[in-house]
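Example record

The entry below shows one chain as it appears in the dataset: sequence first, then structure tokens.
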Amino acid sequence: MIDESKLVKYLWKSKALEFRYPKHKHRLDLYADEKYLMLGRMKHPTMFGNKGRMGFMELYIVHKINQRMDLAKGST
């Protein structure tokens, strides 16, 4: 999961990321220190839409879309 997102990779390298798995919710949650999260949002503004919370699938889809857009741009 760290390799799928530039934002998650940035937070992981900054040691600001925490993985939590609440058993009663059956999902993996990622938490980050607010300072690094705000810096990450400024560095990678396209990762977030208007929502403050983003699920893994949304994050993955945004990453794949951005990847394809970058490939479509090519070397121009």
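Notes for this example: The first strand starts at residue 17 and ends at 20. Strands lie at 17-20, 29-32.
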